[in-house]
Design brief:
Elements lengths: L19 H4 L3 H7 L9 H11 L9 H14 L2 E2 L1 H5 L7 H10 L6 H14 L3 E9 L12 E7 L5 E4 L11 E2 L6 E3 L2 E7 L5 E5 L2 E6 L10 H9 L11 E5 L2 E6 L2 E6 L2 E6 L2 H13 L20
Antiparallel strand pairs: 1-10, 2-3, 2-9, 3-4, 4-5, 6-7, 7-8, 8-9, 10-11, 11-12, 12-13
Length: 306
């Protein structure tokens, strides 16, 4: 087995010394207060999010509503890494991500859009856990720990679904988490396979996409992975620009100055001419208005075909 690359951990801020009152408090009360509950959005935040993706508030947190929300999210919120090349920080904080996705009309990569989607789902009554995954590379080897984030969603009826609005070109609908047979989706044929170590491999058309651990994680656990993908020259996110959105009849992607469209399976691409046309594409196709265009630094943009 090949040892995965070492993932450096960004420095943690030092914790303040406890006060006399804190140190004298009963052990049980200190333990309870130190474990924060899931972020709870305000009702107005939920309504604004639903408007962002063009969805009605569902009557019940069931599977049908989850499928509708998942699809609408993919068609409204782009998978993009522009912040990395605009010099913007990647802040893994629920309120900050709501401000970015809903307030600023932006998208993001997996940690950002899946976290934001989890906040929306919790606000609608779903139970949501964050799962850490490792993307399977071209040679069949998994990437770094916390390479990817996906969501385990439980409905009001207790059904469990794997939701993922942060993997770019992927499934359109959630996958039945406990199903091990093929699952048909407009994006392909998916299957969840258990590994010998107890993890889960998510396959698309027979090809492994990523490997998931089933243990729920906290948002803070993903900071090192996000930091790696924002800063490491070994991450494809630092070497390429991507902004991609599912459409009703295919997908549209802007990779630097190259516009790639897929309509009913037919793929076409062309180079946009000049800054003005690139800005217009971001605005008209993805709803993103930029003061400055993102620029990939440190090498030629990696050619990806979402």
């Amino acid at each position: 087995m090949t040892t995965p690359p070492t993932l450096p951990v960004p420095p943690e801020p030092s914790a303040p010394e406890p006060s006399v009152a804190e140190s004298s408090a009963p052990e049980s009360s200190v333990a309870e207060s130190s474990v924060p509950g899931p972020f709870a959005p305000e009702s107005g935040d939920v309504d604004a999010y639903l408007r962002r993706i063009g969805a009605e508030r569902p009557d019940r947190a069931d599977a049908a509503a989850l499928r509708e929300l998942h699809l609408r999210h993919l068609r409204a919120v782009p998978f993009e890494n522009l912040s990395i090349h605009l010099g913007e920080d990647i802040v893994l904080d629920e309120k900050a991500l709501l401000d970015k996705v809903v307030g600023a009309g932006r998208g993001g990569f997996c940690y950002e859009v899946n976290t934001a989607f989890a906040v929306l789902l919790r606000g609608l009554g779903y139970r949501v856990s964050l799962l850490q995954g490792r993307v399977i590379g071209p040679e069949g080897k998994p990437g770094i720990p916390y390479d990817h984030m996906a969501l385990l969603v439980e409905t009001a009826e207790g059904e469990r679904w794997l939701a993922d609005v942060g993997f770019g070109d992927h499934g359109h609908f959630p996958l039945a988490f406990d199903e091990r047979a093929d699952q048909e989706d407009p994006g392909g044929v998916f299957r969840i396979v258990e590994t010998a170590e107890g993890d889960l491999d998510v396959l698309r058309d027979g090809k492994p996409q990523y490997r998931l651990e089933t243990r729920p994680r906290e948002l803070a656990d993903f900071r090192a992975g996000a930091w790696y993908h924002r800063t490491s020259p070994d991450s494809h996110f630092t070497r390429s620009l991507i902004c991609s959105l599912l459409t009703e009849d295919g997908r549209v992607t802007l990779s630097g100055g190259k516009l790639i469209t897929r309509v009913h399976g037919e793929r076409s691409e062309r180079e946009l001419e000049g800054e003005a046309e690139v800005r217009g594409a971001y605005r008209d196709l993805f709803g993103i208005v930029l003061d400055a265009l993102p620029v990939v630094r440190g090498g030629e943009a990696e050619k990806r075909n979402p």
